[in-house]
Specification:
nine-stranded mixed beta sheet; alpha/beta; 19% strand
């Protein structure tokens, strides 16, 4: 190899999650900070009378609800994970919002003795969020001109002192600008320094640099050079983040956690640098409140005695739950964390995936080595291949069939008349899903389509098809293309090289000659996979069997095949390699400690690299990425039993 590729960190093992939750159940936590309320007002354009006094049309609220925000949402997230005791320390006004906030905290079983009610010059901080038909209106904020009294600050510090003496962990959460006096910050630092062995996790949006001797939780936007605002989707360079976190750690001597959105969490502590990889979520997401989930999870894990790296891994799982809760600052229950932890889809090496300049290749080849050291291939005796895009190009262009079909299904009768904003919103949602779900069974993709049709709410419920109905529409269009190509093959107008990836069949034959058992596993319907592999003349190479999608109860063909190979043969993952052009099969291999080889194929040319596909495969955990099989002799060499 001509350079050292970036290192990958192992994610938290799934079997450890249950033990972590059991230990969290014995932890006591206090949360101190800016307690807020989120008010959701869903506007209904069909209502609202014209005011007789002003002549202006009022905005009618069709539905409204209220949820805990700021430090209160951190409390809600702590309480949702069922620790032994939770206490809240903060300030509310003597108003309707404050009473609602306290009511909700008490409903969660939280100790609110530490909540101070300041009856003058203080309004409960409340964010009024108004939602129209297809967008959020400008927010209405309460409590941004508050004046905290000296007596209030003294009472908060006294209650915080008790918490530091009695609780396993304390969270200090600050979000409202201009709310803390110099004297109050000095009082906080004096308390924190007087309890150096207590876990104190500080999440401060405006005053972080002023706190000493605390664990710090921050995010990559706050770490941007000079506080520069970052464009959506833009992340600071990882070396810059590491340097930023290292400076904070050196100053405090305590662990530092930097959240990175879908890229996971960077941790710097006395043991070094750790990266908890992000988790891919296929459905629609809402990141509001995810940071509070991370803060709560980190504090609970640290209070339970777990290492900072373990705490970050758990926090990632919990955040993957809350980002799937739309239009709410959600929480994660133990059952929900266990469900995500049982089968998470980790995002590996996003920096490498998004910047091909970092790619490192096996010397003299275009085969990218995505990790160092590479797993040994010399013990591999079972190889699973995806079909479409990995070997066959019969279904090349399926995305261009599925995308418009899904858009039409979602827009229904408004397909021709939908305005540009709505059309592009639907199209973006569909493209994002197709990009993430490549390799999943068609029936599962159609299940997601049903969910998107319901989500946008354009098609009346009585007109929404079931998964089989949408699948039939898609399959009819796709099979017309496939049958046309097969007909040309039968007439001799296309030969086998026109319908398969460059070098694929010689590579399969070479593996068979080495005694490797081959399996074909596809998200395409089982009968269609067998028929197409037979028509192209290589079905007999797969002596381990050919597997495709069956009914919904037997979905996830690739997962079933991989697990069956290991179970039936009493193998560990070191005996298995999976080849595929989609993220699904590579992730299934990584979850079982097998080797994952991505085929970043250009299906139109049938050779050469598809950069977009490469990025998806690296994020899915590929150990190697090949554009095609033209240089596969190097892989065969690595797989020789005598190779070291």
């Amino acid at each position: 190899m001509n350079a050292t590729p970036p290192q990958q960190e192992d994610p938290i093992p799934a079997h450890a999650v249950r033990d972590m939750l059991a230990r969290i159940a014995r932890v006591s936590v206090a949360v101190c900070g800016d307690f807020c309320l989120d008010a959701y007002w869903m506007l209904n354009p069909r209502g609202g009378e014209v005011s007789a006094e002003t002549g202006l049309r009022a905005q009618a609220v069709g539905r409204h609800y209220y949820s805990l925000g700021g430090a209160a949402n951190v409390v809600a997230n702590v309480a949702a994970l069922n620790p032994a005791h939770v206490r809240a320390i903060g300030i509310v006004g003597d108003d309707v919002f404050g009473r609602e906030l306290l009511r909700q905290l008490r409903g969660l079983g939280v100790d609110t003795e530490g909540m101070i009610v300041q009856d003058r010059r203080f309004d409960t901080v409340t964010y009024g969020k108004r939602f129209g038909e297809d967008r959020e209106e400008p927010r209405i904020d309460f409590g941004f001109f508050n004046e905290r009294s000296g007596a209030t600050d003294a009472a908060v510090l006294a209650r915080l002192r008790q918490a530091l003496e009695q609780c396993d962990a304390v969270i200090f959460n600050q979000q409202v600008p201009g709310g803390l006096s110099d004297a109050f910050i000095d009082g906080l630092n004096a308390l924190f320094e007087a309890h150096p062995d207590r876990v104190v996790l500080c999440d401060s949006r405006h005053y972080g640099a002023r706190f000493r001797r605390v664990h710090r939780k921050t995010n990559d936007a706050e770490a941007a050079p000079g506080g520069t605002a970052l464009a959506p989707g833009v992340h600071p360079a990882l070396p810059d983040l590491e340097a930023f976190a290292a400076r904070l750690h050196a100053a405090s001597g305590k662990p530092v956690f930097v959240t990175r959105g879908a890229r996971g969490i960077l941790t710097v502590d006395a043991a070094g640098r750790h990266i908890a990889p992000g988790i891919q979520v296929l459905g629609k997401t809402d990141t509001v409140g995810a940071g509070d989930t991370v803060t709560a999870s980190l504090a609970l894990c640290l209070g339970a005695g777990f290492t900072p790296a373990e705490a970050a891994g758990f926090a990632n799982l919990a955040a993957a739950v809350t980002v799937q809760k739309i239009f709410q600052t959600g929480t994660a229950s133990p059952e929900e964390v266990l469900a995500v932890g049982d089968d998470p889809d980790y995002v590996y090496q996003p920096e490498l995936a998004d910047d091909i300049r970092q790619a490192v290749y096996l010397e003299g080849t275009e085969i990218e080595a995505c990790c160092r050291p590479l797993p040994s291939l010399s013990r591999v005796r079972h190889a699973v291949f995806d079909h479409d895009g990995t070997i066959s190009t019969l279904r090349q262009g399926w995305e261009r069939i599925m995308e418009p079909m899904m858009i039409r299904a979602i827009l229904g009768h408004r397909y021709a008349t939908a305005d540009e904003t709505l059309y592009h919103r639907v199209a973006h949602r569909v493209r994002d899903y197709i990009d993430k779900s490549t390799g999943i069974e068609t029936l599962v993709q159609m299940e997601a389509l049903v969910g998107m049709v319901e989500e946008f709410g354009i098609v009346p419920a009585r007109d929404i098809l079931d998964t089989a109905g949408y699948k039939a529409i898609y399959n009819d269009a796709l099979m017309a293309v496939v049958e046309g190509r097969l007909a040309k093959h039968r007439r001799g107008e296309l030969n086998i090289d026109d319908l398969t990836m460059k070098g694929a069949l010689p590579f399969l034959r070479a593996l068979r000659a080495m005694g490797v058992t081959l399996y074909l596993a596809s998200g395409t319907d089982h009968d269609d996979v067998r028929r197409e592999a037979g028509a192209l003349g290589y079905a007999d190479l797969f002596d381990g069997g050919i597997y495709g999608a069956l009914d919904r109860g037997q979905a996830h063909a690739k997962r079933r095949v991989i697990q069956r190979i290991l179970n039936d043969n009493g193998l560990d993952g070191s005996r298995l390699v999976v080849f595929g052009d989609g993220p699904v099969e590579l992730r299934e291999s990584r979850k079982r400690h097998g080797t994952a080889v991505g085929i970043a194929s250009d299906e139109v040319r049938r050779y050469g690299l598809n950069p977009e596909k490469r990025a998806r495969l690296v994020k899915a955990g590929a150990h190697l990425v090949m554009p095609d099989y033209s240089q596969a002799e190097r892989v065969l060499l690595l797989m020789r039993p005598d190779h070291e």
